[in-house]
Design goal:
The chain has 418 residues and is an alpha+beta fold. A hairpin with a 2-residue loop joins strand 2 and strand 3. The protein is built from 10 helices and 14 strands.
Length: 418
């Protein structure tokens, strides 16, 4: 049997990028399908169940001989003021929670192939049944547009200095010598975007370095950090990141929602021999089906086991073998929007390995606009180098349309890899 240490799992191995892209294709396909399910009156638990079934079906079609594949994140649908992913149990009272027309809901999910996970999150406004989306105005439009432009800005701030520089060798070297923006500088720039639309950054919104079987690596970027928290490191070529953006129509401060059960968990890298046989059996099920990726208690429930699994989860969390994700919401109960994009940073710039769909900016109208010249200049920059024929050459349209706040760019939504 081949020693895993001999296998190159970095992006230098073309197979790694291929597996990420296959996982991304599944994540984006299921995200689109789940978005269509999110109409007024539908139960959140039912949508989550259908989303998970879609992920399982799609994963089963690819890499048939690979055992390590499945979820990188279960399907979650978070109501208006919820910040973190939400997926209720079918046996809980929250199973009756229905989506309300007009509320912004956050859909997050993901697939993984051979431990290479793609996670995506999009925010949509719930539509009434059998009704086409009309042009969105008012505060809902402010929130969606602000989140979109803040996300576009953050993606560009993830590009290592000088990576896309043009000109002479001396000019390229000079651009590469520039220090990457500090995390406080990143927060400052993003805060200007939020304030332009009278919104606030969600406290401690975190982007993580991804790796094989790991979605919370050694580096992280923390936006609007709460007291006692801070980010670590800067993005570099050869890395994969989960880039998250969150904005609120309130203060952006968050609070734990203790009245709701924490149903999202993840296996940690800690080792501890659990005492009860039930706990060991539960941990074995978790390890085999989900590895070190997040899972929902609902998925264990639907695995056909009885309620004894709860004892195993409780003991696992108590011994820090399992991490329990607390459910967090906006402190003011204000609507929140979130986006999450999985990216690879290659020598040619950013390649999206799972992203929310391109926002149709013609469907959103706001009387607010971006005016900060520094931000507009950054938004004009591409995410990657042009290779071959360019599908669009409107490099300056993003910033100009952002300033108009009626339309926006569609360039840089994907990039070539190498």
């Amino acid at each position: 049997m081949t020693d895993e240490k001999e296998i190159d799992y970095s992006l230098a191995n073309p197979d790694t990028l291929t597996k990420y892209k296959v996982a991304a294709g599944i994540s984006e396909k299921v995200l689109a399908a789940v978005s269509k399910l999110c109409v007024a009156g539908e139960k959140i638990v039912t949508i989550c169940q259908k989303g998970d079934k879609l992920i399982e079906d799609e994963v089963a079609k690819v890499y048939r001989t690979t055992k390590l594949k499945g979820f990188s994140h279960p399907t979650t649908v978070s109501p208006a003021s919820y910040v973190t992913p939400y997926t209720p149990l079918a046996t809980d009272s929250e199973a009756n929670v229905e989506l309300q027309a007009g509320e912004p809901v956050k859909i997050q999910l993901g697939a993984q192939i051979d431990g290479f996970g793609s996670i995506v999150c999009d925010t949509i406004l719930v539509q009434p049944k059998d009704q086409e989306q009309e042009v969105i105005t008012g505060r809902s439009a402010d929130l969606i547009l602000a989140t979109y432009y803040a996300n576009e800005l953050l993606l560009r701030l993830m590009i290592p200095p000088g990576l896309l520089a043009t000109g002479s060798d001396e000019e390229k070297a000079k651009a590469a010598a520039v220090k990457p923006p500090t995390q406080s500088k990143i927060t400052s720039l993003l805060d200007k975007v939020a304030k332009s639309y009278d919104c606030s950054l969600v406290e401690s919104t975190t982007s993580w370095l991804f790796d094989r079987n790991e979605i919370e690596g050694k580096k992280k970027i923390v936006i609007a950090p709460a007291e006692g928290t801070k980010g670590e490191g800067s993005p570099e070529v050869g890395e994969v990141w989960g880039v998250e953006m969150g904005l609120s129509l309130g203060s952006g401060k968050v609070k734990v929602l203790p009245e709701l059960r924490s149903t999202l968990h993840r296996r940690t890298t800690n080792t501890y021999i659990l005492k009860s046989q039930t706990a060991r059996k539960t941990l074995s099920t978790i390890q085999n089906k989900f590895g070190h990726f997040p899972f929902s208690l609902r998925q264990l429930e639907e695995e056909g086991s009885d309620t004894k699994y709860k004892v195993g989860v409780y003991e696992g969390a108590r011994q820090n073998v399992l991490r329990q994700y607390e459910l967090v919401g906006d402190k003011d109960g204000a609507p929140v929007a979130r986006l999450l994009t999985t990216i690879a940073i290659t020598k040619n710039g950013i390649t999206k390995l799972g992203a929310p769909p391109v926002l149709d900016l013609s469907k959103f109208q706001s009387d607010k606009k971006l005016t900060d010249e520094e931000i507009l200049k950054i938004l004009e920059q591409p995410l990657s180098k042009n290779k071959g024929k360019s599908k669009n050459k409107k490099k300056k349209k993003p910033a100009k349309k952002a300033a108009g706040a009626k339309d926006g760019d569609e360039d840089g939504e994907d990039s070539e890899d190498e």
